[in-house]
Specification:
This protein has 146 residues and is an alpha+beta fold. The longest helix is centred in the first third of the chain and has 17 residues.
Length: 146
């Protein structure tokens, strides 16, 4: 299994070195979709919101900034003091197009569910960019050391 994961990662790296990473699909892959994508109205911290990363994960922050050309910023909220956000009005609009939003009852925000069909219509390069972004944030390589 370990060899398969390393092979897949090497394959993706090789293919993407020869091609340019699609920034929108890369960031879309990096977005946390565990409980949907929240779109909060009237909250200045979320203007142009793309994604958030824990401040301690400096390698992820550097790679996301390198690929996207964007810079992370601190949240104004004390509850999010350990997190930094990546904001861009243009990327937010592009990424939100891949979600179906519905209003949350009793709140001023919307919850979006990823529309897989829209993602799967991407080109091979876009899908590889999506997988690379997802692996950066959510993936890991486990090694068995004896």
């Amino acid at each position: 299994m370990r060899n398969f994961i390393i092979f897949c990662f090497a394959f993706l790296s090789f293919n993407l070195n020869a091609q340019e990473i699609d920034k929108t699909f890369y960031l879309l892959g990096a977005v946390d979709n565990y409980s949907g994508r929240n779109y909060e109205l009237k909250n200045s911290d979320y203007e142009g919101y793309v994604l958030k990363v824990n401040k301690d994960e400096t390698n992820k922050i550097k790679k996301l900034q390198e690929v996207s050309g964007l810079k992370f910023s601190n949240f104004n909220s004390e509850t999010l003091a350990n997190w930094v956000s990546l904001n861009s009005d243009s990327y937010e609009k592009e990424i939100n197009q891949f979600y179906s939003f519905s209003k949350t009852k009793g709140a001023e925000n919307y919850n979006g569910k990823l529309n897989r069909d829209k993602v799967l219509k991407g080109t091979k390069n876009q899908l590889l960019s999506y997988l690379l972004g997802s692996f950066l944030i959510h993936g890991n390589i486990k090694t068995n050391r004896r």
